[in-house]
Amino acid sequence: MPPGGDARIPVIVLTGFLGSGKTTILRHVLRHPAFSDAAVLINEFGEVGLDHVLVGALDREPVLLASGCICCTIRGDLSRAVRDLHDRRQRGEIPRFRRLIIETTGLADPAPILSTIAADPVIRHHFVVGVIVATVDAVHAEAGFKRYPQMLRQVAAADRLIVTKSDLALEGTTPRLLRRLSALNPQADIAQASHGAIDPALLQPDDTTTPRRWIAQSAEDDPSASHGAIRSFCLSSADPVPWSAFGLWFSLLVHRHGGRLLRVKGLLDVAGSTSPVAIHAVQHVIHPPEHLPDWPSDDRQSRIVFIVEDLDPDLVRRSFTSFMRLSTPASQVQATGAF
Ligand SMILES: Nc1nc2c(ncn2[C@@H]2O[C@H](COP(=O)(O)OP(=O)(O)OP(=O)(O)O)[C@@H](O)[C@H]2O)c(=O)[nH]1
């Protein structure tokens, strides 16, 4: 229950820039008994949503909001999704969840989300923003703050900040980031997470989390929720992907264009493997691939979702096709011209 005896259902807003570890944290906390009564709503910026798959084999199905970003194009969808969840709860079609976690897209400015919850009379009657948690990627935060103002807004809006990926950051980066975060948002509690391992209490509202209503109000006058040259596309392949050719293509792509690859995530049907492999990259950092236990549906196509800035999707598609056609290492080396 939110502080102050409020009987409304607390909403936990989990925000943070692209690839900063939101889904990894969600997977971790949802395994904790304290979150067995949580409903989950995931919004992704991309043509094809994958996070609901990556959240994994849980005994509840997260609701995936349509493509687009809740902070701008699909605010109406957010209202509808929250109302719909509540109606289904009341009708007994889904368990009586007692908290709602909304994982935003990495590009979201959280303010319009808060204002949507606060402005809709039906939602306001049943739900209240309980806590806003933002993840901050230790490797990319410093450069990201300069390029992406929404990162600053995420940090500014948060009640709690979780610094991720310190294990990958250069020495001295994390302490510097911690100082910067304290300066940007002195009221927020700051914690660190390694591979999503956090104290689940960080996602629980309590007396220290006073929802930032001023942000919700100021959002009403903020029409700047556009994402400029940032775009998303999906590359899919019906044929199984040869792992070594894929690895080479992916490393070259990241090496050559990493600065423009804000986020890459995919589910691959790797030749010779019966279960899917999840791949992730954030700019120049490729995370280790992960074997998932099962395919989420009968659709076994490989899907790779890209969020890029100033990068031509056709170049990515063409180079992928060239590499996948070639199976010998020598011919792959020739294909590097595709970049
Ligand atoms: N080394 C390391 N990798 C991490 C850590 N936290 C997350 N990752 C990896 O970072 C990648 C991206 O993590 P996600 O949890 O999918 O990030 P996200 O914020 O949900 O990404 P978007 O939904 O695209 O915005 C995955 O490969 C994770 O395994 C960490 O603390 N250390």
* Coarse morphology: globular
Helix content: 25-40%
- In whole angstroms, the N-to-C terminal distance is 54 Å
Ligand identities: guanosine-5'-triphosphate
Percent of residues in β-strands: 15-25%
Q: Helical region count?
A: 12
Poorly predicted regions are 210-226
Report the CATH topology name of the largest domain: Rossmann fold
CATH architecture of the largest domain: 3-Layer(aba) Sandwich
What would you report as the Rg, rounded to the nearest angstrom? 20 Å
Number of strands: 12
Q: Structural class from helices and strands?
A: alpha/beta
Strand order of the largest sheet: 3-2-4-1-5-6-7
Within CATH, the superfamily of the largest domain carries the name: P-loop containing nucleotide triphosphate hydrolases
Main beta sheet, described? 7 strands, parallel
Please tell me the overall pLDDT. Answer: 80
N to C succession of SSEs: EHEHEHEHHEHHEHEHEHEEEEHH
CATH level-1 class of the largest domain? Alpha Beta
Number of domains: 2
Function: Zinc chaperone that directly transfers zinc cofactor to target proteins, thereby activating them. Zinc is transferred from the CXCC motif in the GTPase domain to the zinc binding site in target proteins in a process requiring GTP hydrolysis.
Pfam families: cobW, CobW_C
Catalytic activity: GTP + H2O = GDP + phosphate + H(+)
Protein name: GTP-binding protein
